[in-house]
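Build the 3D complex.
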Amino acid sequence: MKVKYFAWVRERIGKAEETIDPPSNVRTVDDLIGWLTARGETYAYAFEKPQVIRAAIDHAHVKPDAAIAGAREIAFFPPMTGG
Amino acid sequence: MSAPVTIRIQQEDFDTAREIAALSEGRTDIGAVVTFSGICRGPEGGDDIASLTLEHYPEMAEAEIKRHVDEAITRWPLQGVTVIHRFGRIEPGQNIVLVVTASKHRQAAFHAAEFLMDYLKTSAPFWKQEESAKGKGWVEAKAHDDAATARWTK
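Done.
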């Protein structure tokens, strides 16, 4: 699946997107944050406060307990500040 | 007739008068047009900002705005809606966002414009970065924006 990062999540990780293949025990958005966090310092920094991170699956907002099975694109970003 | 909807995500500026005209010209079924313009403010927390840079999630932004425009149309009797949101570098005094709502009577247009702005602030995937003499920094989301959005679900 493709993962995209925006704003300071993107800056901290140091890339805007990547393709990942998490193991099958990574079932939810929350699990995926945990799995990404374990990949290295930049990820740990980006996800240091997981409660403020927002996520979208296939361009729709989701909650941390949302299942990621079948997702084509998952995005992580800070709370939105548009308008 | 069904309400015409225009949603644009663009880098370039927009002309508010032209957008109102595009929505209402030649129609006799509209009795009220409400517009909201969001403009880049210079003074911010005691500092003067030099510019804002808006990052966005292109594939999601339009879909997310469309979802809320559709909801506004089901909640209020609207005759038309236009939403334009800019991205990229914007300087103080320049436009950021435009919401135009048209209805037979003013109340629906007022409520729908406010509803759309509240949701644009908290759920449209845009992020502002400020640049000032102190350097660059991401704008933090404001609790009062979340509270403003929450009142529409009561």
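Residues 60 and 76 of chain A are 12 Å apart (CA to CA).
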